[in-house]
Amino acid sequence: MSDKFDVIVIGAGPAGYVAAIRAAQLGLKVACVDAFAGKDGKQALGGTCLNVGCIPSKALLDSSRQFYNLTHNFDAHGISADNAKIDIPTFVARKDKIVKQFTGGVAQLFKANKVTPFFGKGKLLKGNQVEVTAADGAKQTISAANVILASGSVPIELPFARFDGKTIVDNAGALDFAAVPKRLAIIGAGVIGLELGSVWKRLGAEVIIIEALPDFLGSADADIAKVAQREFKKQGLDIKLGAKLGKAEVKKDGVHLVYTDKDGEQQLVVDKLLVAVGRRAYTDGLLADDTGVKLDERHRIVVDEHNHTGVDGVWAIGDAVRGPMLAHKGSEEGIAVAEWIAGKAGHVNFDTIPYVIYTEPELAWAGKTEQQLTEEGVPYKTGSFPFAANGRAVAMNEAVGQVKVIAHAETDRILGVHMIGPGVSELIAECVVAMEFKGSAEDLARIVHAHPTLSETVHEAALSVDKRAIHKGN
Ligand code: FAD
Ligand code: NAD
Prior knowledge:
This protein is α/β, with parallel strands linked by helices and 474 residues long. The chain has 13 helices and 22 strands. It binds flavin-adenine dinucleotide (FAD) and nicotinamide-adenine-dinucleotide.
């Protein structure tokens, strides 16, 4: 096998593997180096997202949602089931099967597109050479005109609550508990804390979430965050805001936590502790000292608006660079970079990236919040519509939440859409399309939406921007 390529990608997460496939589609000879090993010790392409992130978490969210509905919600439909049980080994094995299907799928896609995978740790050397070190220490060097760095991110570890993989865990550990913990504490009421907290709460764990900040979901629209906080409380998630963990000690009977909140020092003993306080760019050992690639103060690879590092032929994408740590953001950067390398025009619009939290109800948004627009001095108007007045949501017995559309006060251009409720992870796509085409609230309001569907809530919220919603008072 020749060791010369047009493009070498380091990292096969959703940023790297997508970049590799797109570059190959454009006729380039591509290699992709990745060190991730699956449970069987073999190479598992797909990075954090496919192995221990997006896909496995959604598999467990879906299984736990089915169980929760059966045990808590189906009685409203006249459906009852005695002695409903969940078998945790089957629950986890289903997730593992889905992960294997998708990581294997990336391997198949590499084959079909003639992308050469390398299994090992890649290090960028001067002159666009990449040293690949296999698990047994064997080294080989490959080179290319262009190298794309897509090394992703890893969980942030707290110095006083080190991961042990069993009792104090990160996302990977919390996707693999052998049994439902009686008491699970989570540090961080962010996306991972809320999603994985929901999974184990639905299966019967007592879940206590300790969040340092005083406001709940500060980056979401305030109205949406308020509904979310109320609904999660109803579900029994015990979210302690403005609480700072000081100590976590593993003893025979569990993890002993000491934290401080507005009432002073508190103590708590739990079976498991999930630390979900954010992720950091993973650039450890990625760069030889003389490559010229720069890292910022958070160890992220410094890039310009075209994801170029400033070093000839070296690019970087995904969680390892600035911007939101989202799979779809990384994938779009991967496509854009492959297109720039091939001499085409690539593009990523950061203003319309959708954000989704896959709890129950789901949260989804794109664009600016009211708080941001107020700070920026942009004049705006809003319209909203509750799922409680949507026929489909009521028929589903899931009539919780609302859709809020924010439009420019003068031009009517849609500046942001914020949702909480059933199926909003899918409903946001329509709004992203409208925003991408610089649509107005009037545009959304004049589009025919099928009846009865959840999407009518988007339609009514758009009508409500000019106080002409039909199915509510304006
Ligand atoms: P990664 O997916 O982290 O992949 C990087 C890859 O590079 C890894 O395989 C790593 O082993 C490899 N690597 C690193 N350094 C080297 C090296 N030197 N040599 C060789 N290989 C190397 N995002 C969403 O958009 N939606 C979700 O629903 C969602 N859910 C999530 C749930 C959880 C529990 C977690 C943890 C994350 C979730 N995310 C979600 C975030 C998402 O997983 C990341 O944004 C995404 O994986 C980033 O992609 P990436 O390709 O940049 O990096
Ligand atoms: P996050 O940034 O979403 O949340 C971390 C939370 O921890 C924040 O609320 C923060 O204030 C809090 N925190 C930080 N330090 C703390 C401390 N010492 N004590 C108590 N609280 C503390 O991070 P995450 O939940 O770890 O997720 C990491 C990344 O993965 C996110 O950037 C997210 O974009 C991505 N992700 C996305 C999805 C999705 O798209 N649905 C799902 C999971 C993860």
